[in-house]
Automatic annotation (TrEMBL):
Gene that produces this protein: Rwdd4
Biased composition (Basic and acidic residues): 136-146, 153-164
Residue span, RWD domain: 9-111
Matches recorded under Gene3D superfamilies: Ubiquitin Conjugating Enzyme
Taxonomic superkingdom: Eukaryota
Region named Disordered: 131-166
Pfam families per UniProt: RWD (PF05773)
Source organism (scientific name): Caloenas nicobarica (Nicobar pigeon)
Name of the protein: RWDD4 protein
Length: 175
């Protein structure tokens, strides 16, 4: 089989395997991204695999330069790429994109064990810096502030108990 036929078969297989998977993204018919880990996970990372003309006889181009990976140190990125390239060498000549993604998913904890967890600061932390941490139960609910004229009008409408008189909203049927 020609390289293009192999690529077409693998493309069809990838589309059927990852149909509906939110982690998988096809950038073009020869370029794919896969997110390893959940979107909120600080140890999640994104792998991009691109096929050259002669793939699968030659190695695919594996990249971790996506913006999603900015929180990961360059040493860890290089370590992941090195481990993936060992897997590429073992599978050279066969369709390996699915194998690479699954290998990365299976070894995610091993890849990211030296990655510090606290490098990502959430937006809510940066917003809440100036406010004191008071539990919700101790916060006082503010009552609606009325102006003097609003209070006077309310007092004029109500009786001495603060209730509206009987029939205040009735409609006069016969005039």
């Amino acid at each position: 089989m020609a390289a293009n036929e192999d690529q077409e078969m693998e493309l069809e297989a990838l589309r059927s395997i990852y149909e509906g998977d939110l982690c998988f993204r096809e950038l073009s018919p020869v370029s794919f991204q896969y997110r390893i880990g959940e979107s909120g996970d600080p140890k999640a990372f994104l792998i991009e695999v691109s096929w050259p003309e002669t793939y699968p006889q030659t190695a695919p181009v594996i990249s971790m330069d996506a913006f999603f990976n900015n929180t990961i140190s360059s040493a860890i990125k290089q370590s992941i790429l090195d481990k993936l390239m060992v897997e590429v060498e073992a599978n050279l000549g066969t369709a390996m994109t699915y194998t690479l993604f699954e290998y990365a998913k299976d070894n995610k904890e091993l890849f990211m064990e030296k990655q510090p967890v606290n490098t990502v600061t959430s937006v809510s932390n940066s917003i809440a810096i100036g406010t004191p941490d008071v539990p919700a139960s101790k916060k006082k609910d503010k009552k609606e502030q009325l102006s003097k004229t609003q209070k006077r009008k309310l007092a004029d409408k109500t009786d001495n108990k603060g209730e509206l008189p009987r029939g205040w909203n009735w409609v006069d049927v016969i005039k």
